[in-house]
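Q: For a teaching session next week I want to show students how multiple molecules come together into a single three-dimensional assembly. I've collected the sequence lines for a complex. Could you give me the predicted structure tokens for the whole thing so I can convert them for display?
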Amino acid sequence: MEDRIKSALKEAVGPDNFTDRLIDLISFAKDASQNKGRPEAAVWASTREQVAAVLRIANQEKFPVIARGAGTGLSGMAVPNRGGLVLDLSRMNKIVRISIEDRLAVVQPGVVYAQLERALAPYGFFFPPDPASGKVSTLGGNVATNAGGVKGAKYGVTKDYVLALEVVLADGRILHTGSSCMKSVSGYDLTRLFVGSEGTLGVVTEITLKINPKPGLAATAMATFDDVEDAGRAVSQIMHSGILPSVLEVIDRYTLMAINENTELNLPEVAAILLAEADGHTREETAFQLAKIIDIFKQNGASLVREAASQQEADALWTARKSAYAVMTRINNNLLVEDLSVPMSRVPEMLKAIADIQDKYNLKIPTVGHIGDGNLHPTISFDGTDPDQVTRVEEATSELFRKVMELGGTLTGEHGIGLDKARFMCLEHDEIALGVMRSVKRLFDPNNILNPGKMALEA
Amino acid sequence: MEAKYDFERKYRDQVLRCSSCGFCQAHCPIYGLTLRPALNARGKMLVLKEVMDGTIELNDELVETLFQCTTCANCSTNCPSGVEVPEIIKQVRQDMVNLGTCHPAFTAMADVLARHPNIYAEDDKPDFGRPLNRKAEYVYFIGCVGAYREEDSTEETLSLLDHLKLDYTLIDEVCCSGVLEDVGHKINPGLVNRNVELILATGARTVITGCPYCFRTFNNKREYEALAQAGVKVIHLTQLLQDYDFGVRTDKVVTYHDPCDLGRHSGIYEEPRRTIKKIAPNFVELSHNRAEAMCCGAGGGVRGAYPTNSIAMARRRLEEVEASGAEVLLTECNSCVHNLANAKLRKHKFQVFTTTQFINRLLNKEG
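A: Of course. Below is the structure for the complete assembly, covering every listed component.
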């Protein structure tokens, strides 16, 4: 990057908010995926005007701009693999307004999920799409990835809550989409277009979110299954029974084995564990729902069903699910957290396919997931310094996604395409769909400066 | 490829095991303050990975991140991958010092302790008017901060020990010098031997430290093994106090700040709370407490090397105290008291004390 461009950027954000120091560039080179790429410079913006000024410079000089929040993404979408400029939005972290009367919160993109959760708690409200990284991930990241979370099956994902956006376009113009109203069909739904667009169409500088009253009570149960088919049938039956569990999670045999090999938890090494939570406002309400869920577990051959009588017991039932990530990340030096969704009825087939793939490529691929919406996370712990293992992981991943397509699934339920899955986009989307996406990209970003190379948007 | 540095030989697997999840951003006090990813634990591990790969050199350019860590262990305690960041950082600092690259404030610390028996290069020893170097059941070891910067707090602690009729003696103590290993240097054997000799000469079976850092040094550093070998036990003051009933209480709202050295590094969370709850029934917890307590910003040499950020970290902690509605903030570390008191603004109406100091004030009806 030329010095005159650096000077212009310094002027745009203030000299203290510009960096081209080595330690900063290295720290911006990665997210939580395996991808890596050092930028040439980075800026911290604190106003939409600064964002606009930065994009105007980039658009004129035609260098890549990679918007970044907390850098907790799992698909490489915030990785500056072509150099350019990282636009760090974490300092735009004000909660602008909470309006309980209108059931909404207006936030800047750098607000951390947990920060909003804390601010809403005194009102008895919450914002349901809670990424596992919610203690650190930003709401701008929620919007850019259309993040989900464990409550997706009942409460939906980020796109179901974004009412309006303020977006700085590639040429520096400021676009307002949507409305603060709960209902609006006024014009094209530009808001939805930006949610999940991974920083490729514009930079979001303000987000208006619908918020929910938080049910005060929850009841939790766990069931073990000796056959994944049975677990899968139980899930389908629950999801069309009229009960919507607030959480329905699966932990597969290979995860249980990995946990047992690395901890003293001594979990039963069954084919699958299902964990269900039903929330509500009265004990009767949660008990009624949970009783129905437990009935369905039993009808479908659960070998053991356990219901939590207290919060402490509920926490104990969560132990296996909650310890899975820490166990997996400690097994080896590289961790690939995959993300896919299949129609609910195909989940058992998918779990079996994952087991076959791990055997074929001699890998360990434990899987957990939000089974209530068919969203699974096969997780591969491997030695990234061993080229043979790296190749096997790549080949296994390709086969995994071919299988996902065969089962009518989708490449990503909640992590996004980023760099990791750009190569698979043509498996899911035909030429017409990809062509339309690329036209949209060209319309908003004719110079291809916004997070270029992500989502397979270049023909 | 053969490892070039000791940190790599000792901690290569640990550095590689960092999965870059970034969860440490919720815990790192310097990241929380600056929102600059380079200063976060993940940023530090990414830098070290590049050093191990040979793409960058371990040089002055890296000082700002590798020397700007309070070693508070909030990241490692909460790290899903179990990466021992403070241990890695301490080793890297030693590698850097060996290469002749180091933050000037850290070099100054080592120079001071090469020539003076305390970290502040003070020539005049404080006189607390208590018996020195005599035979006694207990040695009370004050520590540099208590002796030279928080003398009032120490005076009140000693008054409380007098009130409890404890058979104790002070010694002509010198700096425990444990901090040198945190800032890239070696523990000072001359200072170690001086402390060990003075302690053993008293015949005491127990050393009570006022400073949680000295407590860690005496118990964990190989150089101080002679104490354990002679059957001398080292405890922190808070472990002693929990067994006493002081017969005083306050109606004020009181809260407690867990010092990193006592909490995360030593696992002592409940003892101080037992004591405080006896004297202050209106006890409230800070929103981050125990293993998640936020660092006061003073540790790891950061107060000397990066004073502006150090004070700003303390101020973030004080914001939590203000939000708790507490009228009194207690802690068990003079270094925390010192930094928190220095960071206090006029609008902060609460008072800051060590627990012992506060109990003594209640006994004297000053609380």
